Amino acid sequence: MAQDNVAAMSDAPIVRPLPISGFPEWLPEVRVVEQRWLDTIRLIFERYGFCSVETPSVEALDVLMAKGETSQEVYALRRLQADADDDSARLGLHFDLTVPFARYVAAHFNELVFPFKRYQMQRVWRGERPQEGRFREFTQCDIDVINVDRVPLHFDAELPRIVHEVLTTLGVPPWTLNINNRKVLQGFYEGLGVADPLAVIRIADRMDKIGPGGVGELLATRAGLAPDQVRACLELAAIRASGAEVVEQVRELRVKSDLLDEGLDELAAVLADLADLPAGSVVADLSIARGLDYYTGTVYEAKFVDWPDFGSICSGGRYDNLAGSFIRRNLPGVGISIGLTRIFAKLLAEGLLSVGPASPADVLVVIPSAGRRPAALATAAELRGRGLRVETYHQPDKLAKQVRYAVRKGIGHVWFPPFDEDRDHEVKNLATGEQAIADPAGWSPPPRS
Amino acid sequence: MAQDNVAAMSDAPIVRPLPISGFPEWLPEVRVVEQRWLDTIRLIFERYGFCSVETPSVEALDVLMAKGETSQEVYALRRLQADADDDSARLGLHFDLTVPFARYVAAHFNELVFPFKRYQMQRVWRGERPQEGRFREFTQCDIDVINVDRVPLHFDAELPRIVHEVLTTLGVPPWTLNINNRKVLQGFYEGLGVADPLAVIRIADRMDKIGPGGVGELLATRAGLAPDQVRACLELAAIRASGAEVVEQVRELRVKSDLLDEGLDELAAVLADLADLPAGSVVADLSIARGLDYYTGTVYEAKFVDWPDFGSICSGGRYDNLAGSFIRRNLPGVGISIGLTRIFAKLLAEGLLSVGPASPADVLVVIPSAGRRPAALATAAELRGRGLRVETYHQPDKLAKQVRYAVRKGIGHVWFPPFDEDRDHEVKNLATGEQAIADPAGWSPPPRS
Questions:
Q1: Of chain B residues 88-107, which have a CB less than 8 A from chain A?
Q2: Chain B partners of A180 at a C-beta cutoff of 8 Å?
Q3: Which of A45, B26, B109, B212 sits at 20 to 30 Å (Cα–Cα) from A413?
Q4: Global pTM value
């Protein structure tokens, strides 16, 4: 067998282990930081009473398509050796965690306690063309609340407040959470006498990409708006304010509708609730529309202050008719998603992450000699029994080589079991170079900085 | 917008939120146990110095196919709106974590420190027809060691020892780890004068499914073995022993080859290394072959003692030519995989898991009245600041309703902020029914049992 495979190895064409663009993977010293981030996020989400939910990566395509406009981004599955009754053709990888969560709530409606608050930290997939900050597989960290009939408006402020705590705790560079309300947009467009407000929202959502000029042109040519309607829409989209003054600025445009009033009241209430956060961290931005059709009220979109063109790092909003649509119940929800991989990869690329170590071990136990290997293993077992993370070196190499291995893996301490029973154990702190006698029954490493 | 969507809700055909068979998902009170299992496994893996690695869910199909025989199980991707230069056609979801890990080591060869020991806990996908214990999406927890040129044989024993610690710590019901060595099989078949030992291994691997009769027939008809060769192969496969006596039992069959001797030496050494584990937990079983073509030495397969037909719950082995095949280096490896979802789902189905609670919160802070909501939120924030996990109720309902919510979510304590500033806070232990005055600056819940 071994011989066979060695032969195969030299004859067969090599399959190069090339990375696939858009599918990130990290070295161990980076992964350990990502893992720490995930632990921190989970801790904070649980501190607010959100429970963990995971859903399959795969949903029926008609569930993924239940609320429009994303079909081009979905990876569908096919079995390589599909037979006639293959059902994988109607399955696809989820492109966000909101639609699967809404489906989950509908599927388990009778078994859940409402209001149902969950966090969900999973990979999602989008069949996009990769570019900076755009991945085809990435991790999102979502919190959502879904309730029967009514989700109190204070949740629209509570969720960004939790995200604020998360990003602050992680030490993410300055960002702004831009808030808008789809009722403001729809109510404004209705008040203007626009026939198809949703079509206008979809065009307005492209402000980031094509600017006011491009949006104005599309509003005229594609949505059929008159010049004064176009002007009013662009004036609305230009409004940015950090507090209740946003209401006055909209009113100055002299458009009226009940839905607009309702949306402005909600927007002002959410801003007021978040007014104690540091200046600039929350801003009403009436150009924010969010492309997804399922949003019905508050919408969020966060961006880095220093990299405004990098795109959204958190997003979400209120979706009053998504979960309920699966079972004809009234199941409104609100949620927000942290684009973990996008943020993490950007900070890594900018050199802003302090990475390492490559090993989780607190200490490396060296093998003094082949004969002393059992004694070294017993020492390692004793240290592990006290909760320490301990790697044993794999063979009785020269001690200098074993120590070098610890250095290269970022292990902070090296443990030297004695060469014979009568001598003492010693431990070396690789950061300080100090080496001292140590007792396996009592020694602990100083806490990692 | 709200109106529009309500209209859409009542008109559109309903997309039923049906579960897709083979893609499990858990209620919160089950997920919390799964999360605890994952935390325990990770802790033990790290205690042995294994670092965390994750790879993309997606690999190039030619990487997945680099070592044979699994093509029918792979889910390939296709973009729903694929264009001419769509490259997703050559991508697929990984079906295990060994092949992606071997590819990872080859891809990052110059950046890793060897021997490279990693754990990897991720979902994998197989386009199989679902049946009991067979999922199409499931989580595996793997540990592997890959080194340049040589991985000492003691790792073949260390890895199952770690798995033993994991399963014991999780309280998994009795299982047996069956061990064999592919060199024993190949050497034995070579010594018998069989022309294509690999073909015989693939047939022998079906012993579980078709029994000795079926295997014997295939060995004769498909592999072209003579009756005495068939008889010898079946005699070999019938050998089960828990220690070095396995060597004698094989020798009694009077087949000789150098590779057989090498394999028996390795098998005996691994069994001897594990001899201190409880009786019956490790057994040499010469019928174990493992279907995957990449194994070259030790192979493992664990089964429940009480459910022998349930199939494998852990598996793995030594693959001396997998990672190296991507870059023409000698990069042997050995690894073992815990079939987390299979084990977890089985215990859940058998009623052997103690599930719950549905909420991670230590305490629910009630809202005494609308006017006292800010005071209740401040109390919750103070408790959170001390590291407690705190949910606040969402509206000033009757207190009995708020308490009932805590009961239904499995939250152990309810916190009653005072109705006015002059009174005391009180906290009720829902397990004991006791209610007592409490100070938010000092109170902690008793540890959960």
A1: 88, 91-93, 103-104, 106-107
A2: none
A3: B109
A4: 0.95
